[in-house]
Fold this sequence. Notes:
By secondary structure, the protein is an alpha/beta fold. The protein has helices at 10-25, 41-45, 50-58, 71-80, 97-107, 141-150, 165-178, 192-202, 230-233, 237-253, 342-356, 364-383, and strands at 62-67, 87-93, 114-115, 131-134, 154-157, 182-184, 209-217, 259-264, 279-285, 291-297, 305-310, 313-318, 327-330, 333-334, 387-388.
Amino acid sequence: MKSVDPSSSPATASRREFIRTAALGLGATLVGSSVLGAPFSWLEEMPYGPASLEALRQGRKLGVALVGLGKYSSGQLAPALQQTRLCRLAGIVTGTPGKAQQWQQQYGIAAKSTYDYKTFDRIADNPDIDIVYVVLPNALHAEYTVRALQAGKHVICEKPMATTVADAQRMIAASQKAGKKLGIGYRLHSEPHHREMMRLGQQQVLGPVKRILADNGFRFNNDTPWRVDRELSGGGPLMDMGIYCLQGALYTKGQVPVSVTAKFTPKPGGDLFKEVEAGVDWQLQFADGSVADCRTSYAENMQSRLRAEASKGWFELQSAFGYGGIEGRTSQGGMNIRNVNQQAAQMDDFADCVLNNKLTRVPGEMGLRDVQLLLAIYRAAETGQKVSTKDVKDVLDRVGKG
């Protein structure tokens, strides 16, 4: 096929202008350019495909059904779906009749698009639902992801993908068999500060990254008891908060580690952490000798930091893993990036993949990679030994040359 310069195409130029205008409508764009270049880099790198632009012109949106109406669905996903441009809230799945009625009234959900866990499989007969978003306790991810795929729906599964490697593999196999897309709910891959961390690290703008520092944790008050129930969660803060540190280290470095060491932190008194860890510190070792030192906890309020130290400078995010308020700095100055509605950006990015039949930047294979790494961290902490990760799935979200 003949090669063309996409930047010279009038259609591409029009598309870029459209995307910028759309982003401004969400109040979510870069301000000018970073002191390290790449103005509007996160938008230029993730343009909507032609089918998405046509859907926008027609006012057509893909329907999303939320499975599980807990804090994240009610506090983040449902509000974000009022701001998305390519998808909309079209269905719900809950085992609580009172919640079903409340959501029907608040969001105009039709009775025919309201399911409980016994009637869930009937979703196959609902053409108004294109995407199922699984927002259940970790141990239930595999069952409902597989069932949704078998029903002919595309799926976003919350992180962590699963609690075992076997379940993650089963989910990927179901996606392949159904011919439907499977993405993991890694919202920060569509967040511009984190896209900039990827660019700076992977493109070695300040030289090769030598060390990464990441921490993420808070004092857990047992408001969601399943998170400290090992059967449902698969683990404690590592599965919930630490996975952000793990992700951040990998996409900033642009490599999968070759080994890991770890240790559990002391548990406070009481029975809250009788089944799971209260905290864990771990180090990822990369093939080039660089490391990532990470911490997570349910017993300590942490900074929520992602910092990379390179041969010619440093770059970091403060409040790095929260739903907003991220601040980015480098050794050469500020990043000058505004915050976005992360969940809206994430879900629109996935909808764009569905509409244009293109690969998602956060596929099931990445979820499998992270399950393998999380379990390796647990093994290292339990044994006190360095654990090889050379057999871990090598999947990365690589930024383009900006």
